[in-house]
């Protein structure tokens, strides 16, 4: 009979606790659900303690499971950092980095940075998950999230990568046909285009115009504004070039919210991980080079 290694089952338990399901853990580890279940049962048998309570609807972590998870998480983090340190000493990075960003910003700015970073480190693997939903870093196994605007309170580390400004604007054709609003009170006279937030951000708080079009794509909102469908509020990286060439006109600058930012958000346990730190530095330099302003 093959003796179970003391490391067997650690990753399975950590993945189950963080994903809160066997299927989620299996996806995270790239193995079958049956494999995760076997590893977990073998670990519980070796320890002589139930770590996870299984019901038909959910998994519950026992006190023993939570205690063992905390130590296992720290052990795996330490092992990962040791491997990263050796790789860095040898001048290369390896392992896998899971990054998430919003769809449009990710396609336009994060993905090119990922490509150029991978060309520098051929042994590194990256999962880039583009989603307009704010994925949970722990539950979704994310190492690094690129977030826009105001951050929610969290225990994660946040680093500012670049400034971000919002502008209300419209096409010259729309303004010629419908007039130019001079104040907040005049917005109800105009067709307005809204994104995922369902409102615009103002200097003193939310602005709630009546929406002619709602859509969860900044690029499509830009195209709608260029086509003369109404007023829109979009970030600087969508509109500044159009201000320069005259295809969009800035409106109501007195309502413009204060500058926000593009953020890198990552778990504190990864603060010393070279592949995270190096990619953040790489992305910051990339954004400074390509963002307008």
Could you state the order of secondary-structure elements as H and E? HHHEEHEHEEEEHEEEEHEHEEH
Please tell me the overall pLDDT: 89
Count of alpha/pi helices: 9
**Mind telling me which CATH architecture of the largest domain this is?**
3-Layer(aba) Sandwich
For the largest beta-sheet, the strand count, sense and barrel status come to: 5 strands, mixed
Oligomer: single chain
- Please list the strands of the largest sheet in the order they lie side by side: 4-3-5-14-6
CATH topology of the largest domain, anyone? D-Maltodextrin-Binding Protein, domain 2
Q: What sort of overall outline do the alpha carbons produce when their principal axes are compared?
A: elongated
What fraction of residues sit in β-strands?
15-25%
- Could you give the distance between the termini? 66 Å
> How many domains, as an integer?
3
User: What's the CATH H-level superfamily name of the largest domain?
Assistant: Periplasmic binding protein-like II
Poorly predicted sequence stretches spanning 5 or more consecutive residues: none
Sheet/helix structural class: alpha/beta
In percent, how helical is the residue content? 40-55%
Q: Which class of the largest domain in CATH terms?
A: Alpha Beta
Radius of gyration: 24 Å
Q: In total, how many beta strands?
A: 14
């Amino acid at each position: 009979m093959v003796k179970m290694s003391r490391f067997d089952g650690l990753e399975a338990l950590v993945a189950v606790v963080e994903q809160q399901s066997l299927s989620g853990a299996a996806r995270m580890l790239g193995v079958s659900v049956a494999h995760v279940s076997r590893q977990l049962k073998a670990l519980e048998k070796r320890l002589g303690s139930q770590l996870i309570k299984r019901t038909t609807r959910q998994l519950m972590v026992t006190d023993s499971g939570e205690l063992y998870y905390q130590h296992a998480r720290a052990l795996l983090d330490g092992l990962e950092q040791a491997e990263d340190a050796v790789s860095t000493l040898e001048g290369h990075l390896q392992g896998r980095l899971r990054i998430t960003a919003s769809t449009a910003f990710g396609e336009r700015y994060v993905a090119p940075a990922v490509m150029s970073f991978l060309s520098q480190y051929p042994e590194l693997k990256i999962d880039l998950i583009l989603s307009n939903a704010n994925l949970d870093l722990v539950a979704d196994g994310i190492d690094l999230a690129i977030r826009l605007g105001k951050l929610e309170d969290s225990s994660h580390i946040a680093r500012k990568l670049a400034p971000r400004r919002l502008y209300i604007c419209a096409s010259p054709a729309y303004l010629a046909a419908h007039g130019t609003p001079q104040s907040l009170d005049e917005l109800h006279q105009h067709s307005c285009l809204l994104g995922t937030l369902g409102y615009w951000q103002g200097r003193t708080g939310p602005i709630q115009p009546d929406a002619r079009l709602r859509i969860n794509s900044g690029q499509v909102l830009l195209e709608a504004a260029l086509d003369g469908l109404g007023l829109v509020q979009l970030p600087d990286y969508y509109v500044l070039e159009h201000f320069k060439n005259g295809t969009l006109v800035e409106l109501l600058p007195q309502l413009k919210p204060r500058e926000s930012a593009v953020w890198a958000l990552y778990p504190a346990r990864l603060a010393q991980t070279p592949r995270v730190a190096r990619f953040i530095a790489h992305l910051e330099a990339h954004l400074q080079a390509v963002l307008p302003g």
